[in-house]
Amino acid sequence: MFSIEEGWKERFRGAAFPPSSRTAGWVIDASMDPAFVEPTLDVVEGNPSTARVIVVAAPGAVGKSTLARAISATTNAVLVDLARTEPLGGNFFVGGIANAFGHHALTDIYEGRIALVVDALDEAQLRSGEEGFAAGLTDLCNIVRDGSALPAALLGRAAAAEEAWLILSDAGIDVCLLQIGFFNNEQAITYLSRRLPALAEAREVTKLAFDRHGRKFIELATATREKLNESCGSQEGRFAGYAPVLDAICAYALDEDDLNPSARLADTASEGPISLVKRIAWSILEREHGKLISQIDAPPQGLDTSILYRPEEQLGIIAAKLFGAEAPPSPQIPDAAFRQVYDRMVAEFAPQHPFLSASGKPSNAAFAAYVLVWAITSGAAPAAARQTLALQPSLGAGLYFEMYMNWLAAESGAPKLLNLDDIGSLYFSFSSQAVRGESPLLEISGETNAEFVDITFEMIKNSSQLDEEMHGYPIYGPVQSKIDGIVEFRGLIGGLNIVAPVSVILGDGQAVNITAPVQIEVDQLELAGRDMRIFKSALAATRPIGDDVLLVANDATISRVERISLYDASLSVTFPGSHAYPWAEYSVDPQPAANERIASLRRRARRILTSFRSHSKGALVRLAAKIEHARMMKEGVDGPKLLERLKADGILTSFYAGKFYELHPDKLAAAFNMDYQSIQQQQWTSEADTYLSQI
Fold first, then answer.
1. CA–CA distance from 53 to each of 66, 83, 155 (Å)?
2. What is the pLDDT of residue 634?
3. What digits encode the pLDDT tens for the residues 4-15?
4. Which helix (H) or strand (E) holds 621?
5. In 3D, which of 170, 262, 187 has the Cα closest to residue 37?
6. Structure pTM?
7. Segment 644-661, tens digit of pLDDT
8. Which one of 242, 361, 551, 628 is at 20 to 30 Å from 223 when CA atoms are compared?
9. Domains of the chain: which residue ranges?
């Protein structure tokens, strides 16, 4: 294992902190969290013992920044926090070193006396755009290429880390890619045993209780985690080994109103991992409610104190602090004097709420996700919460997605609808869960003039075999959404398949960044950025369908785009204005059908064939239930007959007891004289029309 003691210290041997730093984000006094538990680093590519740059990738909120601080503190390496520095760009590192530490520091870094640990690659990618991101990494190459210089470490979420690895590899740098995993059982228990006393120190009552019964508190937290582990199935690592969930378990264990861990050990049942986190959060809200009421010495006669500081009021206050939402009104208290006393008490209690840190930010990602979903789904502060997510997409990490999906699935009353306005933030949260070898997929499908569309999220794993392992792939949906909003993606996108009568916005106002493959066919499309950049997938070698981006729209707002750059990927567009600059060379006109029946069969064939996704060394695979669903087949006999013909000709074959279909591009090409891309672009051939006319 490449660890701090048996890896980082050796690679950064000879590093020393400069005397002072004059620039924000260039940190020389990083301290190690007293509850720090070193995660396991798995080598994905390269050799960390010899690489000039070591890139560390991880899902969101698993402790990248905590690890970066620990490496910096123990090796005397400068911590470069890209979330606090200027955006990446040309001369970023050379100029940044000189500005932060003086020009003499340039000699120190080239001669191996200064090392760099660079954190928050993903935030830098969003802030600087792909060109600035690449330019900054190129500047780092100019430093680490020098044989006397120490290597550099880069840390970020999987997508940004893999992009950095590709850029550095293309630049000829000896680069290594490592992956942080979720805590294993031993690490999680160690984390709980260290985090609990650290949290207990915050209040005198919990400190005294932990001093007396520390072992029992750790036993309670461990038992709660074990119950969570049992309910998670194949996804146990994403919850029971996820630091924000472990933090929530610690907060739950240190319930100030029930500091009897022995008695609570019997009450650890849970419906599931997210339900447990929600139950933990609700128990804390109820505890805060009771704590405030206990401070009231003499309430006015006739006042029902149970209405005071209820969980909903607390959540509204927290949402106001975190999102800038309007604060909720105080409960109806007729006694004016007591109302003033109550408002004063709330003003004192709220800033110390367990959901908030001392700086007024969320105390951990689990509670942030809980408040976000409550604010959006309860209707209490949806606009403010959505605006905050647009500015801070990593708020709540992957748990925001899980909690939102849990709310959708809850069986109470009428079926719930996913709001189109939430799809962009959910996509980002879902994507943050991806680890090396996984690709997030978002599918939105709906027929013309439909009132509702279907939304599915799927995490595709590029395993080595087409077997029963695929049955455990995380799939959420389909869930329905009413077509009454806008689907907006501000950051880097990839793995989108949107074929529906909806409105879509891509871009953050400056750039539209896309990683192929992406297929978007919608009513209205807006491209919000001057630069449009399309990149190949890091998994391109496994994809038989190529790295293609297809954009089709009945109406398009495209005037802001001035430049289009392709990086080993292809682009096809079909929308009004696509024959003008800069779109003309990418414009494609669909081939018209001879009659309406052929047109109908083309639509059905295209819908079926382009729904397949790359799995397992590039094989094109789809759940049989998805292909056979009524929404895919539509009314009439054409869909089922076409499916049977494709199976009879071996274009589609089933496996794993009929649960999956695989599409064979070679047999498709032989029958249709078309490849997958041609079908996407609707470049139909006479052979294809003949095949379809025989259905």
1. 19, 20, 11
2. 64
3. 999 999 999 999
4. strand 619-623
5. 187
6. 0.68
7. 999 999 999 988 778 888
8. 361
9. 4-180, 437-589, 592-695
